[in-house]
Amino acid sequence: MTFLKHALITVLLAALVALAAGAWIIIGGRFDVAVSAQLPEPVHEAIHQTRVNAVRRKARDIPARPADLDDPAALLEAVAGFDAMCADCHHAPGGAPSALARGLNPKPADLTEAAGKRSLEELFWVTKYGIRMSGMPGWGKTHDDAELWALATLITRFPQLSADAYEQLRSEASEAGVTHHHHDQEIDHEDDHEDNHEDNREHHH
Ligand code: HEC
Questions:
Q1: Range of the domain at 93
Q2: How far are the Cα atoms of 5, 9, 47 from residue 42, in angstroms, in the given order?
Q3: Is residue 123 in some structural domain?
């Protein structure tokens, strides 16, 4: 009986200490929320592995990939879409991380590298659902699956695309008049860019 009593008191004391420590951190704001703050390496690695494994697990349940993934018109649309939606954070083949990308923690993945490690289904899943608490948006709310499969397929081609070959695809897309639209709002990003540059004030990093 005395053993049980001692055990109970020890557990209660430990719970109180944990509660006090939690309050000290939460109420006192003693947690570095700056992007420059780094988690200890084992914690960072554990979170990264959890993310990789969670995506792999979820990607098992998505419906079969469409049959016509090699459609050249879809490829050009994917290039226009990548430019409008992804390139600010993930540079295209041969590119370098933007100022926006360098300001994020965790860093946006190098998609040429990711293409070598992830399946098409995993790339599709992340593109559709995003990764919370990371800055990676889920694009499934505003885009249909066909477009997202085309984007994921484009990423699988990155390791084979040189910077020149990618540029070539971009100019083919713009010559063919392929632009990117969000179905719900009909925002044309190309127009946005033109508007922004009308006054000729340029912003440099
Ligand atoms: C605002 C910045 C941002 C934008 C825009 C963005 N991403 Fe991401 N993306 C991220 C970040 C940050 C990560 C890394 C998350 C992590 O490490 O947990 C990521 C991760 C990914 C991954 C996972 C890579 C891997 O290693 O498994 C894929 C695939 C991806 N993004 C595709 C896209 C596509 C396709 C688009 C455009 C439709 C896009 N992203 C737009 C920030 C962004």
A1: 42-182
A2: 37, 33, 9
A3: yes
